[in-house]
Amino acid sequence: MRAADLLYATAMLQIDTRELGSGITVVTLAGKITLGLESQQIESVVKDLLKQNRRKLIFDLSGITYIDSTGLGILTFCSSRATEAGGKLCIAGAASLPARLFHITRLDTIIALYPSVEAARESLAAGTSG
Hints:
Strand order of the largest sheet: 1-2-3-4-5-6
Low-confidence stretches: none
CATH superfamily: STAS domain
Number of helices: 4
CATH class: Alpha Beta
Mean pLDDT: 89
Number of domains: 1
Helix content: 25-40%
CATH architecture: 2-Layer Sandwich
Order of helices and strands: EEEHEHEHEH
Radius of gyration: 13 Å
């Protein structure tokens, strides 16, 4: 792992970041995004990335097994922060439950959802996300 990459791990949630090139960073989340200090770490990671001018973000949710309303709020907050900083946040690989929650809550109209990290990367690189 390069020095610019980060790995955060807690009992309920693991957060890993990696650079794809073209200014695109993948934030891989595994576990549960729920009410609690573990999930608040996501906001800190995004804040740190934005300070480093890493503004094209892909949240890879393929490893997320559960997400509650607090988790949805955290993802929405992170998307807003990225937008305010002149960037873009996309969601990739959401399994059936998170994807269904994005649709039910209409967050899929606010945050672009992609079936894979590669699809999100292509869209961000082309400047067509969202």
